[in-house]
Protein: Probable DNA metabolism protein
Organism: Sphingobacterium spiritivorum
Amino acid sequence: MIIVQYDGSWSGLMSLIFEVYEFKMEVHAICKSNEVSQQHLFGQQHIVYTDGNKAERVLKGIVLKAGKSVVQELYCAYLSEQNDIELLILRLVQYYLGSKVKVSANYGHEDVLKLKQIIKSVSRERHRFKAFVRFRQMEDGLYMAKIEPDFNILPLISSHFKNRYADQLWLIYDVKRNYGIYYDKSEVTEVQFDLIPSDQHVMHKAHESEVLYDDLWKRYFQSVNIKERKNMKLHIQHVPRRYWKYLNEKIGSFGVTNSGTSVYSCFLLYVV
């Protein structure tokens, strides 16, 4: 029973797959170096150290055998952070590389079908956060937003916000994973805080006009809302409650409210 440890990075996972082939290992479990559980203590330990050359060779092999889109799918699944996702990716790479024809669309294969389902969930989350990110302007001109997505979607939305707000300084911080992406008007880099700023601290450091914009934003949503045609079931379907915490239009004087609507679902409320 072989337990493989790696550093948790994408390159580390690709290096791991390289060594599985190199040493012809039958892997029982894969875990991150800082997440070794008691149940993994009784197996044969194999530690993988991230190697850029090994990772690159694995990626080139997948592209040549299965196509570039497959690499993107595997990376999207890796960002889901689901339990045993590394084992699923390893099995799929072995399946793709071991087949004489392209099988990435073989929905009859259990692992391929599971991969497609995970990708669908992650893609839906990525799409939602293109609309649900709410920036606040700080005193120094930086636009900051805090999010708490189910999946690690920051790498998937960085190019969208870079193109959309190319002339602004902005920071989107994932408080669940304690890291963010910062744009300095030229490139996007990852950043990490020793201490995640609280909502009160962010508001204290916000530009003085933010209070006025908050009020204007809430008034807008109140004015477009039609109480007689409110459909909360449909609204929650498109704007789940777990997102409300960081939406300006959902926050009242005493915290998150249970009413109101969102730009994303206004049209749906009108047409139903």
Notes: The chain has ten helices and ten strands.
